[in-house]
Amino acid sequence: MPTTDTHTLIIGAGPFGLSLAAHLAARGVDHRIVGRPMEFWIVHMPKGMYLRSGCDWHLDPEGVDTIERYLAEHDLTVAQVTPLSLERYLDYVRWFVARKRLDIRPTYVTRLDYAGDAFEANLDDGGRIVAGNVVVAIGFRYFAHVPPELADRLPAGRYAHTCDAVHLDAYADRRVLIIGGRQSAFEWAALLREAGARQVHLSYRHDTPRFTEADWSWVTPIVDGMVDNPAWFRNLSSEEKERYRYRLWAEGRLKIEPWLAARVNRPNISLHPRTRVMRAEVLPDDSLVATLDSGEHIEVDSIIVATGYAVDVRRVPFLARGNLFDRLRIANGYPCLDAGFQSSVPGLFFTSLVAGQDFGPFFGFTVSVRAAAKILGARLTSPAKVGA
Q: Which residue segment(s) compose the domain that 190 sits in?
């Protein structure tokens, strides 16, 4: 296939990539976006899931093609779709892509190299793109995390991370142990029961979170304010950064959305707070027995780990195969970024979850897509507007 040249290549067609592509198109910036649209959401999230985000977390930096406008065109109100289902959100994104006429190439980058003043991206469809700038907007895909000390206690091949345990009908009439006790663990428990699981156990090290609505209202003003002051988070003291991290963590992890309470408080869902799984062994009949530090022994057929995600950019295959790591500064698994999302490699930018160390934990959530798009748009078109 012929080589394509472009000003900016966006790698990733999730919320951050799509929002940026729409914004660059509105600014008349030549760009290409590659990836299978919303693939992680479609492939690695279960049907029937509800989002914690509200209808104000839309994708359009221009404020035109919002979720509320989508709802109005479908004769729906915010109240009718709250909480927002995964299926409804994906339908909004399809509508958004059509409205913005985004030209997405549904392929993967297999290798990314830096060639002096440009980048060369090899694609799995046989094509190649040469770009002056590259924005990596890959989201969560490569960062599913199972703590090594937990993995050592579980039989190899007999457990799955939540992002891979999404076909819940496969667990019908089975006994399942979920290790983890935050929102995703409780939602998987409800969905498993509704899919016909015989018994669901949750083991987690902390007290049971409260079933109460999370308050995200304070996040939007902070994120929107970063458009004019993108260095805001990086200029905070270590103590201030930690306070914001904890506040966001507390909203997301010390609370469980109240619409889950009735679905979880069922006879065949058992909670085991303040416990750890010490070991799990395979029994002669191929079932499993998990031993908790409380002394309990739980016999199950399957184990699901709801242990979240941890950024390590070295796990991204197309970066690992290329020649960028010798030039890319990395700290704690994150690329080191300036106030315009640019890494130590000139012209190479990172957004979404991977930007969280320098821009704050807010960038692991779709509330930040519009701000990220505007900051990147300013930097890509007029670098002097955004300082390091």
A: 148-213+257-305
